[in-house]
Amino acid sequence: MSDTRRRVKVYTLNEDRQWDDRGTGHVSSTFVERLKGISLLVRAESDGSLLLESKISPNTAYQKQQDTLIVWSEADNYDLALSFQEKAGCDEIWEKICQVQGKDPALDITQDPIDESEEERFEEIPETSHLVELPPCELSRLEEIADLVTSVLSSPIRREKLALALMSEGYIKKLLGLFRVCEDLDNREGLHHLYEIVRGVLFLNKAALFEVMFSDDCIMDVVGCLEYDPALVQPKRHREFLTKTAKFKEVIPITDSELRQKIHQTYRVQYIQDIILPTPSVFEENFLSTLTSFIFFNKVEIVSMLQEDEKFLTEVFAQLTDEATEDSKRRELVNFVKEFCAFSQTLQPQNRDAFFKTLANLGILPALEIVMGMDDLQVRAAATDIFSYLVEFSPSMVREFVMQEPQQTDDDVLLINVVIKQMICDSDPELGGAVQLMGLLRTLIDPENMLASTNKTEKTEFLSFFYKYCMHVLTAPLLANTAHDKNSKDLQEGSTKINPVCPDNFQTAQLLALILELLTFCVEHHTYHIKTYIMNKDLLRRVLVLMNSKHTFLALCALRFMRRIIGLKDEYYNRYIIKGNLFEPVINALLDNGTRYNLLNSAIIELFEFIKVEDIKSLIAHIVDNFYKALESIEYVQTFKGLKGRYEQEKDRQSQRLNRYRRDARSLDEDEELWFNDDDDDDDGEAVEKSRMEDDFSDSYGKYMEAKKGAANGANGANNNGKAAVIPPASPVVTPNNSSSSSVKTVALPATPVVKTALVGLVDYPDDEDEEEEDEEEEQSPRKRPRLSS
Prior knowledge:
This protein is α+β, with helices and mostly antiparallel strands. The protein has a seven-stranded antiparallel β-sheet, with helices on both faces. The model is unreliable at 112-129, 485-502, 679-694 and 714-790 (pLDDT under 50). The longest helix is centred in the C-terminal third of the chain and has 26 residues, at 690-715. It contains 33 helices and seven strands. The chain is elongated, with a radius of gyration of 42 Å. Belongs to the SMEK family. GO terms for molecular function: protein phosphatase activator activity. Residues 644-671 form a coiled coil.
């Protein structure tokens, strides 16, 4: 048997009864030694890897659908499909399958022979070894036919046999002929039996039957049969809806009759599945899997046929962006593009990629820029859905377009600003559209999905662009609603257009909460750009104004924004918070909340708990110094006492550190100690002018150095290791600025008070002692001890 390679796509049916694409490759049929039989092999066209290896079993039922599909089941709940690029390839593989099974290639389904074990499992009666014998298609036998169709649904083998019988005798068209007779005679009993028959035939789940039932000359009669549900007093009017109410709108005339027929068929079959047929029970959920597949592959074919018709799509976008196009026509065009994008979700990833690139080349994004700014709510909603498809598919494509837009003087025309303004101006009280748009904006500004391109500049360039041209539009409602003075310079250009409303308005509060959520996301992911913006606009102060809102959810959003900033443990942010005294509105909110144990109370306490646990020293010192008196009465949590404890520990640690630098741990030479003691005795308690003290110090220092030099010559510096730095004669005075803190330590006298500076010279100046004694008492006050680490 020769190997003929054909291009195919491999699909598998997942648990949700949706087809998953497994890749594109070339199919061949060959003998596989390991499987001991002729098998279907599909090798990926990209790397030659094996996508499928399936033995053609004589007991497997294969189905050929729509001339280019072969579908079969290999195990329980594991369905496979091969979608051929060419009909000739499908026919050739189908012939090989039929040859292995000894079947006639003219049939669209291979018969599943009876297996004895299956007979036992399903407890079939002996007559099942033959084809199901259908009663004559007559009015008087409708009840018998209905009972037969209903009885076989529980047995897979009998379903197969009934399907073969229905196809072989042209039975479906005969039944539909009887339907027209019953309807003319108003034979309700017969119509009720036909409902059961047609519903049961659909549940046989056979594509070959669907091809007949959903053909142009049969489908409306099938819908008619399904109108006469015995459970209903009056029949439904589905045909009236499909023929009169549902209008097929050709926004641009479709010249391809096959494409038009496929669109009609898909709509009607989708209607049957979604509207007419009852929701299948847990026992019936797999009965309509082939119907789902039928619709799926129809949609794939429709999208492919439209995509290949370049003139059609070019005309669509030309009219969409033409100013002369009437609003009603433009609404239809936008809805068409939306439906087109929805159908594209059925494409495999590679084809979907080509689909959206085609739309991009045709100018979908400039068109969206126009229609999203229109007043028509329906048009804007449809345009938002299209935009969401594009952003979800490729955020980078949208970012690239935005940055290539000409930088006009009016930033309002930029696509992202159009999106932001639509979010801000959403008229829905629940802000459903605004929530959707906020999610899309977050996707666009998320660095995680920014491609690491060759030059790796997408993140830098786009964020710089966004903060320069778009951020002021996003924050305008926030700044407008938190300004103390409506005429102040804080109102950014464009913000007066937003119609500032009191933040206590519920819809405005919801909008501000959305904006804050986006800004909080920026704090977490944009570090440099958002930090600069917050500092320049004093944004945190404006946000904390919302802590006074009567809407607790808005106050929590403001608090969450501050919590994210503090969570970064960035000293630039900490200094900004301390300098602006920005804990005050948070602490006021805590105190105003009183004894209520609610989410706001817990969130504020968690903020301070985080500062305590992470030991953010600068913030702890600021909080204790400025707010501890107001907070010390809160004892139901130990957070604030813990902050005070941290503060005291840091104060003690700083004192010990200063003492280490003041005291000299070395053993002093007797000469040095005597010299220092003599010097202290002479000067203790005397008020001497600074010039005289410097002279005395210089003289005594000279004598000391001569004695020291003599001792050093005799002992060769043995006693100097680790005790005192050797000072060249040319530098008689050492100041704190030119001494090395790593190698020079202070010689501390027993009676000398603490020196408060961390930069210490070689020796204490005698005239410092009086000042140190005066400062000793001041050091005992805790209010003099903040920020010892600064």
